[in-house]
């Protein structure tokens, strides 16, 4: 055969790596960790094998294990000792995340990012205080058929977010990551941090966060499932791609430093679009359901876990993510 082009030449063992377009580094990975004020012992999260809710007294050891694998950053989620309609334990200076941040930053070199949201702290599980909204299926003339439905009060939530980020920053958080999809959240948080003297603290915005069924295991882990309804009123419709560009643009205007797309694998097109349209670092959140499904299939012997985990993270990077938040962080980093 007289073939000019033989792409297989570059797939031979000794040259394959030389021409590889994408690589995974432990330094690109962020490990999510759960700190729980309601327990003195680690509680395994059933749907997320290998992950636990960790008591405050165990959080430093947990983070040291992460650092051991070469992963240098953690994303901290808190489960508070009590919940109320406003989620007030979220901004308490002696709250679970604030205390964990103080301990981790004073005893380790980890780069500590805090998730900033209210859903783990409100007793109804929504991402902010509620407002009643009247909605009518068949038009106003239906009168009595109008059903009052509850939705999150956007602007009241912004006021709470200001308090949360400043309390995290006072505790020593290196970066804050607002995840509640409230309009104006990035701008509000940026001004609150700046006014409190934390202009050096970057914001990683969950800029394009979809209303996804892949968050199921996380909601068990963090005890943050909405008690009623869903998050459609604030998280994005999975059908929309242009809207993600709009969300990211708004966050860019408001001063977000890193743009996150979440989930990752079912939204690789969004990651790739955001990479092309913006010059910010792009983060992708390989969420709890993406982790759980690979584990479940591996447990049945249907997939090889290490291989599919690495391939997943590689494809997320290839799509354009600079950073990946993933429950596989430690496993994969250890093998790199
Ligand atoms: C909300 C938050 C959620 C996740 C991260 N931050 C859950 C939600 O929006 O319901 C999900 C992460 C995952 O599934 O791994 N604070």
Helix share, percent: 25-40%
Query: What's the name of the CATH homologous superfamily?
Result: Aldolase class I
Low-confidence parts, pLDDT < 50 over ≥5 residues?
Answer: 134-146
**CATH class designation:** Alpha Beta
Task: Please identify the structural class as seen in this structure.
Answer: alpha/beta
| CATH-scheme architecture | Alpha-Beta Barrel
The counted number of beta strands is 12
Q: Any idea what the shape is?
A: globular
Task: Write out the distinct hetero groups bound to the structure.
Answer: ligand PBG
Count the domains: 1
State the end-to-end CA separation: 40 Å
Largest sheet: 10 strands, mixed
Strand coverage percent? 15-25%
Determine the oligomeric state from the structure: single chain
Computed over alpha carbons, the radius of gyration is 21 Å
Enzyme class: lyase
Subunit structure: Homooctamer.
Protein name: Delta-aminolevulinic acid dehydratase
EC number: 4.2.1.24
């Amino acid at each position: 055969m007289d073939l000019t082009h033989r792409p297989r030449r570059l797939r031979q063992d000794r040259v394959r790596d030389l021409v590889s377009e994408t690589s995974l580094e432990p330094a690109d990975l962020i490990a999510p960790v759960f700190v729980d004020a309601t327990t003195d012992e680690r509680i395994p999260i059933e749907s997320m094998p290998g992950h636990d809710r960790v008591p405050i007294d165990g959080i430093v050891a947990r983070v040291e294990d992460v650092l051991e694998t070469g992963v240098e950053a953690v994303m901290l989620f808190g489960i508070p000792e009590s919940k109320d309609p406003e989620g007030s334990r979220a901004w308490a200076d002696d709250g679970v995340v604030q205390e964990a941040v103080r301990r981790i930053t004073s005893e380790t070199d980890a780069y500590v990012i805090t998730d900033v949201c209210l859903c783990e702290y409100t007793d109804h599980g929504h991402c902010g205080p509620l407002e009643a909204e009247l909605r009518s299926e068949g038009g106003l003339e239906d009168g009595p058929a109008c059903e009052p439905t509850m939705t999150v009060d956007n602007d009241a939530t912004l006021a709470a977010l200001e308090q949360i980020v400043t309390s995290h920053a006072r505790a020593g958080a290196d970066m804050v990551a607002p995840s509640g999809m409230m309009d104006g959240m990035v701008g509000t948080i940026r001004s609150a941090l700046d006014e409190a003297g934390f202009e050096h603290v970057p914001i990683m915005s969950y800029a394009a966060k979809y209303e996804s069924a892949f968050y199921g295991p996380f909601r068990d882990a963090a005890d943050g499932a909405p008690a009623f309804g869903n998050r459609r009123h604030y998280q994005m419709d999975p059908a929309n791609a242009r809207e993600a560009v709009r969300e990211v643009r708004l966050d860019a205007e408001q001063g977000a430093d890193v743009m996150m797309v979440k989930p990752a694998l079912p939204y690789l097109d969004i990651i790739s679009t955001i990479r092309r349209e913006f010059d910010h670092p792009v983060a992708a959140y390989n969420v709890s359901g993406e982790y759980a499904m690979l584990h479940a299939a591996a447990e049945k012997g249907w997939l090889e876990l290490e291989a599919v985990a690495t391939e997943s993270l590689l494809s997320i990077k290839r799509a354009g993510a600079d950073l990946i938040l993933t429950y596989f962080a430690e496993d994969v980093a250890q093998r790199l």
